[in-house]
Amino acid sequence: MYVCLCNGVTDNQIKSAVQDGATTMRELYQETEAGSQCGKCCKHVKSILNEELLQLAESAVKVA
Given pLDDT bands bounded at 50, 70 and 90, which one contains residue 60? Predict the structure, then answer.
């Protein structure tokens, strides 16, 4: 699903960027350019970022 219509960024692209090491909105912006135009998507992008980071943390705890 498209999250940032201005730059054509999907939720899968954001998730992939997090999997590749992006941990902040700034890093996501640099990787995907999401939120660089109108900014209306920033709240949703941040939500996806937080969900993915939580999942990574939970999987790291299960492994340890």
Answer: confident
